[in-house]
Amino acid sequence: MDGRELNRLRTQDFGPDERAVSLSQRLRQRFHPPTRWLRFAQELMRLPTAPFHEQNVMLWVWQFAKNRGLPVRCDEAGNIVVEFVPEKPDQSLKRLMFTAHMDHIGFWAVEQKGEDLLRAHWMGRYPEELFVGSRVVFWTGGKGLDQIEPGLMNDEGVSRRLRIGGRRVTAVVERVVSFNAAGDVAEVDLRVEGAVEPGSIGMWDLGEPITLNGRMSAPAVDDLAGVAALVCLMDSLKRGELRRPVTCLFTRCEEGGFFGAIRYCRENFDDHKDEGALTDLVVSVETSKALPLTPLGSGPIVRVGDRSGIFDPEVCAWAEQCAAGLCEQHKDFTFQRRLMDGGTCESSVFQAWTGKAGAVCIPLGNYHNYNRETGKLDSEVIDVSDWGNLVRLMISMTERIETSGGIYEQFRGWCERWEDEHRRLYREPDRAGPVD
Question: Which member of 94, 97, 217, 246 has the lowest number of beta carbons within 10 Å of its beta carbon?
């Protein structure tokens, strides 16, 4: 970088953002994901899920991996870990791990207190004033997870309580009963139209997933869209050739406070800090609340940080390089690099343990089922092209062998050269002449 280049960069700070101009041009061309990718997403978004009650999603991912011959295991917390191991892996490469969470804000039944009155626990952040009168659907009476897939859960006590599928019972929230320490709703009473067994999953009654006019809406997009992106990545890895080992981690209870991610980090990183485990690269895949500069349709986002902190700069720079390469190759690809501080994501957990975490995401409309324009309950929504390009970016990240290591070392080198060349300005500022 010479003086003229530095001056150009400074001039651009006061003029139009060239990336924004490029974005507006690229928005005219949209990427249409393969039909099988959309099918995976729709199937996952039809499944009931709630914090600590992700069993339907767990089973779907487990069977998907098994059917494709991918090594899959379930840890003691119920996180699903799927490994892609190339036939001829390059052992010198850092392991790359993508992660997404399998839960969404929701209810689980606690106790039937009368013929038509149900006490339920709620977990997640949602406006208190919108609970009463809102419709909920519970899934009850399904088969035990241990009966359908005995090898999935390690803890038999947990597996007996988790049930798959079941009949639907509709309900209406009658009153808020209690709050947790953070001031969020914790328990509610509902009027139900039938018997509901304890532990049954409850979600807002918002209908089926719909894909229409380039948008995909569903009661639970966050983070089943991320789960679906990891599934599409696994599918693509099996169809291609890759030298880098890739891990896909599907975590539990992110909405309740990152329980699955924390347990994974404590089990895998606490005792291995001197054995190179911290050189692994972790990339969280999320849907993040759309912000004014990141509306739906603006492409996937290289997320440099969240509400809690900033992620690893080198991982972010590497992800940005992968995205920039796709922009050069494909006219229907666009992306942004932004701080998405509408909430905290699991990358903050992995950054705390590994120091090598980053994140990619797409904008999410009606975050946590709250439509800010109407002030009412609504389905979450994403742009199909955004989501498809997110998967393309993840695939590119698995194909790019080298990360952007040493970006600050490179910048330090430029700083030293720049200062050496112009050190005379300290003594002779009036004789400096033009900087070239």
Answer: 94
